[in-house]
Amino acid sequence: MTGTGAPVAAIVLAAGSSSRTAPAHKLLAPDAMGLPMIARTLRAVTASQATPVIVVLGHRAAEIREAALAGTATGHPVQFVTAPDYAAGLSRTLSVGIEAASQHDVAGALICLGDMPLIGTGLINDMIAGFASHPTYPGAMPVHDGRRGNPVLWARALFPALMQLAGDRGARDLLRLHGPEMLRIPAGPEIAQDFDTPARLAEFARLFAGG
């Protein structure tokens, strides 16, 4: 819960075609325990204080949905929505997720990327707690060694602007505008570590051997 009494949603973006790892789809790639990447990402998100958790689907939606459910924490429902124009770019996928979050009584939304499975529950909760203490901020971002990364938490006041974005730039333009005013949350190097090339998928296949 935030200082406004409303929770923060988590939006997991999982609609892309994963063209850089074709023919393999990165979100379906298994780790050392056989858990698909999207499920590993969802395991941390659904164990956090974020609610609701919304997953935006697009390319190979049915397969991604089935894989995602393998990582859902017990008793934590996940809302799946589909971005019909996901091929138009990340911004349209984000817009669909924000629109879904706006239907709930939330103070903001944490935007998570499906191919960043190293983001832990602790960081997610730290970001939500930090924003709860500063509810008038435009949002919160994790920072490591002076550099920002993902996920990014946006206050509800910016939902309309987020839904108007276009192209494949995500919210970069809004970050440039509002970034200086956003709360900084100390984090580790995982905030800049995604898995979107064949070499990185090979690395992911060796991770999480302990469970």
TrEMBL record:
Pfam families: NTP_transf_3 (PF12804). Keywords: Magnesium. Residues 10-178 form the MobA-like NTP transferase domain. InterPro entries: MobA-like_NTP_Trfase, Nucleotide-diphossugar_trans. One of its GO terms (molecular function) is nucleotidyltransferase activity. This is Molybdopterin-guanine dinucleotide biosynthesis protein MobA. The lineage of its organism: Bacteria, Pseudomonadati, Pseudomonadota, Alphaproteobacteria, Acetobacterales.
